[in-house]
């Protein structure tokens, strides 16, 4: 499973890297998922609270939300209420149920394997450029 923000260019590059390595993805909208405390913690619990957040989200970038100042319960409630704040992608393997947050190239290669041309890149995490508008909600498609 690949939880993404529909329309995000960064997520599109991440999907392409996984598919180029032969992985089949079940794509889901991170924004439309009915997250619960338990379902979100299944992904986030191993990480420190600040690593739960999408640093490109407008409320994080403008300082309205400061992940380093939040405890786990407050952060979790905020992420459930505003899924745009969740670091993406969230991924889960079908074969063993293991989960991963974000797209550090070396970590993803060790976890599921990537094409060597991709692993030469330091990371596919986040947007490719500061002008790319990944943090804004994509228009809905009916």
Task: Tell me about this structure.
This protein is an alpha+beta fold. It has one domain (2-119): 3-Layer(aba) Sandwich (Glutaredoxin), CATH 3.40.30. 32% of the residues lie in helices and 8% in strands. The chain contains six helices and four strands, in the order E-H-E-H-H-H-E-E-H-H. It has helices at residues 9-20, 37-44, 58-61, 72-81, 105-112, 116-119, and strands at residues 2-4, 27-29, 90-92, 99-101. Strands 2-1-3-4 form a four-stranded mixed beta sheet, with helices on one face. A hairpin with a 6-residue loop joins strand 3 and strand 4. The longest helix has 12 residues, at 9-20. The relative contact order is 0.23. It comes from Vitreoscilla filiformis. InterPro entries: Arsenate_reductase-like, Nase-assoc, Thioredoxin-like_sf. This is Nitrogenase-associated protein. It holds the Pfam family ArsC. Belongs to the ArsC family.
């Amino acid at each position: 499973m690949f939880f993404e923000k529909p329309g995000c260019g960064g997520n599109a590059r991440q999907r392409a890297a996984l598919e180029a390595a032969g992985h089949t993805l079940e794509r889901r909208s991170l924004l439309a998922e009915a997250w619960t405390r338990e379902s979100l913690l299944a992904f986030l619990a191993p990480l420190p609270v600040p690593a739960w957040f999408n640093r490109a989200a407008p409320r994080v970038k403008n300082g309205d939300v400061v992940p380093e100042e939040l405890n786990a319960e407050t952060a979790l409630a905020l992420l459930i209420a505003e899924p745009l704040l969740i670091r993406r992608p969230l991924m889960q393997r079908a074969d063993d149920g293991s989960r991963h947050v974000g797209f550090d190239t070396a970590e993803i290669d060790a976890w599921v394997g990537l094409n060597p041309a991709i692993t030469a890149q330091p990371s596919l995490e986040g947007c490719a450029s500061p002008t790319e508008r990944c943090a804004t909600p994509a228009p809905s498609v009916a």
